[in-house]
Design brief:
single chain; alpha+beta; 2 domains; 4-stranded mixed beta sheet; 5 helices; 8 strands; membrane; transmembrane helix; DUF3093 domain-containing protein; transmembrane
Length: 169
């Protein structure tokens, strides 16, 4: 028996999908240029050393903010969907819908449910809608941005299928 348990723990579900929703390179120059313009407006009229204070504060803060926006990680691993710090066990996934630009806009706009869990990045066109089947959770679905929504949907469905076929403990 101990050998069988060791074999099962060694056969845990591998990572099926990982992506980081980074801020694209083309968004950094306009953001930093706008911040430099704002710092220049604040710097006007300030004599001496104080003239550089807005630049020294605003430009690093903008870079840190862009980096923080781009650190979001989406992964399907170990029997759960991980979106940053949020975790969803795949046993609660009832289905997955790949969303295009128009469907995403509709689902985040006029057709939005107030209890939906949404993690979207406006610079990413694709997304998935993960339909939930959890009677104890009022959340009807998750909407998650993805650069590869079809691969994310396939990984979720494959993880759910392997969780369904795994023996119960």
């Amino acid at each position: 028996m101990p050998q069988q348990a060791a074999a099962q723990t060694g056969n845990e579900a591998p990572i099926r999908h990982v992506e980081r929703l980074r801020v694209p390179w083309w968004l950094w120059p306009p953001a930093l240029a706008f911040t430099a313009l704002l710092a220049a407006e604040l710097h006007l009229g300030a004599p001496g050393l104080r003239a550089w204070v807005p630049y020294a504060i605003l430009l690093p803060a903008t870079a840190a903010g862009l980096w923080a926006l781009g650190r979001l990680r989406v992964a399907v691993a170990d029997g759960e969907l991980r979106v940053d710090d949020a975790r969803l066990p795949v046993r609660y996934v009832a289905g997955v819908t790949v969303l295009g630009v128009a469907e995403k806009r509709t689902l985040l706009g006029v057709a939005a449910h107030p209890y939906a869990f949404v993690v979207q990045r406006p610079w990413i066109k694709g997304a998935v809608q993960v339909h939930l089947n959890d009677p104890n959770d009022p959340t009807p679905y998750w909407v998650v941005s993805s650069r590869r929504p079809a691969a994310l949907a396939a990984s979720l469905l494959a993880a759910r299928a392997s969780a369904d076929s795994a023996p119960a403990e």
